[in-house]
Predict the 3D structure of the following.
Amino acid sequence: MAAAAGTPAVPTTATVTTTAAGSGGSSASSSSPPVAIVTGGAQGIGRAISTQLLGAGYRVVVADIDAEAGADFLKTLTSKADRDRCTFIQTDVSKESQIKALIDGTVRAYGNRIDAIVNNAAIARATYGADPHTAAHDSSAAASDSKSANADAAPKPHPLETLSLETFNQYLAVNVTSVFLIAKYGLPYLKRSQPNGAPPTAGSPLSTSAIVNISSTRALQSEPFTEPYSTTKGAVLALTHSLAVSLGSERVRVNCVSPGWIDVSSLQKTSSAIKPAVLTATDHSQHPVGRVGVGSDISELVLFLCDGSKSGFITGQNFVVDGGMTKKMIYT
């Protein structure tokens, strides 16, 4: 896709589409709307997060490998205010050059600052066969073989002996290494969003910038044949608290959200939309809260964690959003 008229050019490793003219590279004032990047932000949980942040007044850069999904998301924005504050940058987060281009494109479009980064992009297949719950709950696909499928079309899982090193490393690159790289290259601009570098006072936000990583309940419990997914989502938890401690002195908060079963069947691009999930009474009742989750269950928490005026004393934490399922003993 070509950039819209008036949008500053970015390196050729990323494609930018925006509905706004952009603000060039000038530094944003503290009173200007905050800037957020959402990776895997065009579909699934990522789409819910992008929409939530736009509704809260953020300027949002939606990064996704799927250009069609990005264009489709922009078409869903019915408000001119939302259209003026949203940019799509096609990005393969497994490639360092494209992550650099994503950060560069963001600051060129919206000024020399980033207030929040949501690392949501992931290979979303829990098993290296398939899992119906994952098709309904995880983030926008970040690799060509990870697109969500209907449960009734899911292939059977394969034994560990069939798992290739190439596949395992692909999960690592997308699900873990990208989180590290985006934090690395985004940090200089996260630091610039701080108010004049002044020390916080009692009752004031301890930090105005944030990184929110999306992990999974698969980091805490497993089913057979989930080694690449569970391993990488567990690594995201460890990377979260490590970054939180390292970046605390920079006043950058880092937290993690681990979704359970989230129905995102209505949050896909039009051309490959998952048919509406047919959820049974048992699907809902097995959750202690009595229902399967929806996208807003995740996006509202992400918004809270991005807002330093509300969550300024929270960092290094993992928030499990699964309707209580990981606390439930199940014996059959």
